[in-house]
Amino acid sequence: MRSRTIPMREVHVWEMPVRVYHWVNALCVTVLCVTGFLIGNPLAFMRGTEAYLNYWFGTVRFIHFVSAFVFFFNFVFRTYWGFVGNEFSRWYNFIPLKRCQWKEIINVIKVDVLQVSHKEIDSIGHNSLASFIYFITFLIFLLQCLTGFGMYAAMSTAFLPKLFSWIVPFMGGDMHVRQLHHILMWGFILFAMVHIYLVFYHDYIERRGVTSSMIGGWKFIEEDVIERHDNKSEDCPKD
Amino acid sequence: MENKQPSFYEEVRGDGISRKDFLKFCATMAAFLGLESSGIGQIVKALETKPRLPVIWFHFQECTCCSESFIRASHPIVADIVLGKISLDYQETLMAASGVQAEEAYKAVMAKFPGEYIVMVEGSIPTENEAYCCIGGRSAKQILEEAVKNCKAVVAWGNCASAGCVQAASPNPTGARPVHKIISGKPVINVQGCPPIADVMAGVVVHLLTFDRIPQLDALGRPKAFYSRRVHDTCYRRANFDAGLFVESFDDEGAKRGYCLYKMGCKGPVTYNSCGIIKWNDGVSYPIQSGHPCIGCSEEGFWDNGPFYQHLPSIAGFGIETTADKIGVGLGVATAVGVAGHAIYTNIRKKKEITNAPETASETETPKVL
């Protein structure tokens, strides 16, 4: 039997609202990609029937629009939580404005992506590279909401979508908006592939329980990492 | 007044149009413009009393299909209102004068009706080298800039004048630009389409004449009365779209049953025009009714968002007919390969670590995060 004793502590990293956001977001993105793909390239599986007997494509679009609203408000909520949540969910984690964040990004590329260095990464929440990637996805979220609601505004009389009616003229027409909306969807798909793989990778290598942390909120962190985290210098106090 | 211009009504009566036909025309225009019933009276009064609009009509980089659309309108008054019955003092295709006389004709309008005349433009203006389009030794840009100086408003006919159309399509060798990007300080009405519907053109002129101001425009400068709804939302085949009934090739069962042309590349969902309501050739039909997908000719850059028979536009720089989906799948495969390679290497590393680890590690040993 191989075994070892490692001094570890449990850290409450992801608060309940962050976890709820994550899973609502995951569900919405999945539904939006599937329905979006169908809207872009519908299956013509019905033959020899009349329009008044069917409404499946209308339903697909309805699901897409409802999920989009949920996605949007969920995203708005997460942005708010970036200003009131705990240190791991705060906005400054996501935007690398400090030198130490860039240093960590380079370290993570060496250690986890290229695997040429075996230095430890001290992060407890997201590491700096992950945070930066999330920041980029937030920008994609924003653009996707803008283009989506921009197209939706033309067929809605509701207040919220009407706020986005400037998007289409700004971009020069519906064609350009739809094209960008479609291209950005691929950003979500590629992100999801890498994201899910990396969760497996980190749990496999680091064994801090990163997968279950998004369910239970707690992570196992080595004592010395926590010690270094608590003693960090002032210019880079957080992760 | 001796030099009084005859009114539009006097003109058409002189051509043998009955008062009944005249009133029918006024009622039709009121309906197109979305006016309430009292608006019919306003149009009748305006056409009966007001002198004709002085108009200078320029042809720059274009194919004259806007004019062609017009002279093929079956209702005589619709065609006449722009081509015959407004004071069309300068129109290169139709006027009898040529050379010096032609030049004098439009200069006379500018001198005689400052602040009153309307400049109507067919075609885009080259900016890469202005010499690509010259008339009478002067470039299109010079002519236009001079003409709009004292005009009341500018009407940009068709996609060329409104958005550049095919001349402005990539790579745009002449640097073609639409009217609203050349001039400033004057209202520009973009009457979009390639060509625009004749009745829409007439409607814009009637509006200018009746209300003495430009019609309400959308954010892209198009009259709201005609361009506020998508072809898709006014399409008689829309029910088939919602039902998920699509044509997949031009000779299939769905095409015969009149299913939705979305999968044939129909741009109706992204195109704002009145084709579904006013239709063409005196309301006979429009492309979708004739079984052909909309190509989106009233939208900016519709040539570059092709091919016409493909729903998703191609992306420039990746070869012909490479859509976002093809690129996406390519990137997806590349990502999967990268992930797999990374996973294999990770496993080799992890295996080494396990085999190198002692049977039972001591408690004091620093854990290695691997």
Question: What is the compact description of this entry?
Answer:
By secondary structure, chain A is mainly α. Chain A contains 9 helices and 2 strands; from the N terminus they run βααααααααβα. The mean pLDDT of chain A is 89.
Distance between the termini of chain B: 99 Å
Q: H/E element string of chain B?
A: HHHEHHEHEEEEHEHEEHHHHH
The main β sheet of chain A shows up as: 2 strands, antiparallel
CATH superfamily caption of the largest domain in chain B: NADH:ubiquinone oxidoreductase-like, 20kDa subunit
**CATH architecture descriptor text of the largest domain in chain B:** 3-Layer(aba) Sandwich
Share of residues in helices of chain A: 55-70%
Shape of chain A: elongated
CATH class of the largest domain in chain B: Alpha Beta
Topology, pairings included?
The complex is a heterodimer of chains A (239) and B (370).
Chain A (H helix, E strand, L loop, with lengths): L7 E5 L3 H25 L15 H29 L14 H15 L14 H26 L5 H4 L4 H5 L2 H32 L4 H7 L1 E5 H8 L9
Antiparallel strand pairs in A: 1-2
Helix pairs in contact in A: 1-2, 1-7, 2-4, 4-7
Chain B lengths: L7 H7 L4 H14 L5 H12 L4 E6 L5 H7 L4 H8 L3 E5 L7 H14 L5 E5 L2 E2 L7 E2 L2 E2 H9 L4 E5 H6 L12 E2 L10 E4 L6 H14 L12 H4 L10 H6 L9 H5 L66 H33 L14
Parallel strand pairs in B: 1-2, 1-3, 3-7, 7-9
Antiparallel strand pairs in B: 4-8, 5-6
